[in-house]
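Hello Y.,

Per our agreement to keep a running log of every chain we model this quarter, I'm adding this entry. I've kept the format consistent with earlier entries: sequence first, then predicted structure.
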Amino acid sequence: MSPRSSPGTRSSSAPAWDRTLAPIVAGLSGLGLSRSEIARLASLAAHRFRRKDTVSKLEYHLRLFRSFENLLRAIKFCDLISHSLERVVKPNVALLRECGLGDCDIAKLCISRPRMITTNPELVQAMVTCAQDIGVPRGSVMFRHALLAVSSVGKEEILLGCPARVEYLRNTFRWTDAEVAIAVSKAPAVLTRAKESLQRRSEFLISELGLEPAYIAYRPAMLMYSLEGRIRPRHYTTL
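Predicted structure for the entry above:
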C-alpha cells in the first residue's frame, strides 16, 4: 500500500488550488458547489477557469441551466466561460424570451444546442427568422423544436432561410407551399433528415403505398420513423 500523501503534498491528479484559484473556489463554494463539482468544472474549462469573471458567469449559467449536471453537459460541448454575458449571452437569452420561450424551454434548448446562447446575436436572430419563415410562428409549442432543427444546419443556409431544404421537401413529397409549412410546423426535425432518407420514404409512402402527399404533410412524424425498422414492418403485418 502506498503511503498517504502529507497535507502539503499534491497528487498529480488533484486540482492545484493555488492563489489564483482560491478566490474562484471560494466563490463557487458560495454558490453551493462541492469541491468535487468545482474540480469537474475546472477540468473541462482548463486555463479559462482562472478568469476573474468565472464565478459571475457560472452563477448566471447555473441559474439558466437549472442544475449543475445540465451546466456540465453544456460545457462539454461549448466554451461558455469565454463568451461575454453582456454582449452575447444575455442578448441571445432575451431574444429567446421575446420568442415566447420560458426559462425551462431555454434551458432545454441550450442543453441540446449550447451555441444558441454563445453565437453572434445576429446569427441567432437569423435562426429565429428562419424558423418563422419555414412556417413555425413565435410563441407556438413547436418553436423551440424549430430553432433546434434550424440550428443544426450550416450558417450559410440559416442566413438564406433554408430555401434549399424547403425546396427539397416540396419536390420530394410533391407538396404545395402550404403543405410544406404544415409538415414543418408539425415536425421541424424533418429539415434535418438526410436527402437520401427522405427520398426513400417518399418512394415507399407515395409510390409504393399510394399515400396522398397531403396525408403525409398532416402526419410528418412518420418521416422520422425508421423505414426498415418500423414503417415497412407495420405495413406488411397489416396485409
